[in-house]
Amino acid sequence: xxYKKVYLKPGKEESLKRFHxxxxxxxxxxxxxxxxxxxxxxxxxxxxxxxxxxxYQVGSIVVRVLTFRDExxxxxxxxxxxxxxxxxxxxxxxxxxxxxxxxxxxxxxGDSLPGLVVDVYDHTAVMQAHSAGMHVDRMxxxxxxxxxxxxxxxxxxxxSETTLPFKADLLARENGFLLxxxxxxxxxxxxxxxxVDWLKGQxxxxxxxxxxxxxLLERYAQGxxxxxxxxxxxxxxFYAMRGGARLVHSVDSSAKAIELTNENVRLNFADDSRHxxxxxxxxxxxxxxxxxxxxxxxxxxxxAKHRDALRNALRGYTKLNAKAFEKIRPGGILxxxxxxxxxxxxNFRNAVFTAATQSGRNVRILHQLTQPGDHxxxxxxxxxxxxxxxxxxxx
Length: 395
Fold this sequence. Notes:
Layout: E1 4-8, H1 14-17, E2 22-24, E3 28-31, E4 40-44, E5 50-56, E6 61-67, H2 75-91, E7 102-107, E8 116-121, E9 124-129, H3 132-136, H4 138-149, E10 155-158, E11 176-179, E12 186-189, E13 192-195, H5 211-220, E14 225-229, H6 235-242, E15 247-252, H7 255-268, E16 275-279, H8 282-288, E17 295-298, H9 310-327, E18 332-338, H10 345-359, E19 363-369, E20 388-394
Parallel strand pairs: 1-4, 9-10, 14-15, 14-17, 15-16, 17-18
Antiparallel strand pairs: 1-3, 2-6, 4-5, 5-6, 7-8, 8-9, 10-11, 12-13, 18-20, 19-20
């Protein structure tokens, strides 16, 4: 197979020599033969030396590298990459576990498949493309996924309408099943059941990346009054209930999210009066809530998706955490998170530190949290570390 060529400016191959999987537009000297959006291209140095092969796309990231070797991007390639991803999840005890059939099978650059996310919920895989190339190759990926996963995955739902670059000239963007079509949408995580809204829900339908952090929260919940802010579908809420919380209140601005939260609580704790849910703006709720809670979870959506929004995002994290510090009971536990990729760990800690200073409370760090093993970070792509969390003890 002959691929069209992208040539780099002199010296711009250094990041690729360190196996960073992105080629930025400023590094490119010229592009041969006008490749189409999503086409596989070869990357050459200014000295005409092959250095990488990947998906082409118009934008700031022009090539997302699939391989640094001169190998064809064919069925064997997709099968091999998915087999490696599957083996990692098996080593984590996530595949074949009777108490857990929910996990991320492919995490983009972390699995050397940039632009691709695959989450598995029981027998349904939800596939999401974040690049033009993965959209173009979606059927090749789906066929390889079916071969690698066998009977474990009987349905593949493609959910990329909102994640593909909006300027890309791409056809067939609509969501839908590529394989199967089961209406069954109940999955299990650590022995707890939940509904997955892969049709209209956020991300792939559930926030798989908080699995281990929810389990940690369960250990702290015994006898506490719990507030789960930005609850989405209630993951932290039903873990808190299983952990023996005295009461659990779930808050989200989305009425649909509150409906799903209530359904999930009923799945696991039918007719349990400890739980109540409110569709309300987070800051308004925090303003009026009083000091009834001694365990609070702050897991907001990304406050900054781009670097130019970083300053405002940090102000938002500071304001949110300051309000929680102000209201939480003495001896309370605060789980606080940022999922904004452009907000690094130091940024986030500084925002929380500022909030603690404003509150005048004595605060100690109990745990520093991140994403779980099925959301691996490629050591050559530190940008993949996006989830940051702190567990704090507030005197």
